[in-house]
Design a protein that fits this description.
Elements: E1 10-16, H1 22-36, E2 43-49, H2 61-69, H3 85-88, E3 91-94, H4 97-106, H5 110-115, E4 116-118, H6 139-162
Parallel strand pairs: 1-2, 1-3, 3-4
Helix pairs in contact: 1-6, 2-6
The structure holds 4-nitrophenyl phosphate.
Length: about 160
């Protein structure tokens, strides 16, 4: 790319069920990493839930506390995924099968369907195929979410910077 060419930011939407645990954590981890690397201006990130029952809420206090211990500030307000997201974002990353199925059912065109991916596909160390829902579990579940998300977001950032 020529130096004077304007590079468009990559727009990434992280999606879980309630948008109060996993996807706001993914947004926080990715934002932190991109700032740390000095490449935050190359991305626009947001998160949303397939279920709108927590709309307007801050992330779950347990998720915020576990994230804060690792230096991630989670101040996103929950919102539900909307049809416009399939136009606006380049990548729409679901946390588990249920999220992926819901997102695919919302996509209107093959191009929109192709934007829907599984976040764990970017993991390089954790051999998992979903981010387990921590909502009804204990502290270990929230730590597990962050461990997998750190791996996935590192891989995602590398992937975006190389492509
Ligand atoms: P999240 O977790 O999808 O990671 O935000 C959940 C949040 C809320 C509920 C379930 C999962 N809920 O049943 O309200």
């Amino acid at each position: 790319m020529r130096k004077d060419e304007i590079q468009k930011p990559v727009k990434i939407l992280f999606v879980c069920l309630g948008n109060i645990c996993r996807s706001p954590a993914a947004e926080g981890v990715f934002t932190h990493l991109s700032r740390e690397r000095g490449v935050a201006d190359r991305f626009e990130v947001d998160s949303a839930g397939t279920y709108g029952g927590h709309a307007g809420d801050l992330p779950d206090p347990r998720m915020r506390a576990h994230a804060a211990r690792r230096g991630y500030l989670l101040d996103h307000r929950s919102r539900q995924v909307c049809p416009g997201d399939f136009e606006r974002f380049d990548l729409i990353l679901g946390m588990d099968d249920y999220n992926i199925d819901t997102l695919r059912s919302m996509a209107d065109t093959p191009e929109q369907t192709a934007k829907v991916r599984r976040i764990t596909d970017y993991c390089r160390h954790y051999p998992v195929d979903c981010i387990p829902d921590p909502y009804y579990g204990g502290a270990d579940g929230f730590e597990n979410v962050l461990n997998i998300l750190e791996d996935a977001c590192e891989g995602l950032l590398e992937h975006c910077l190389l492509s």
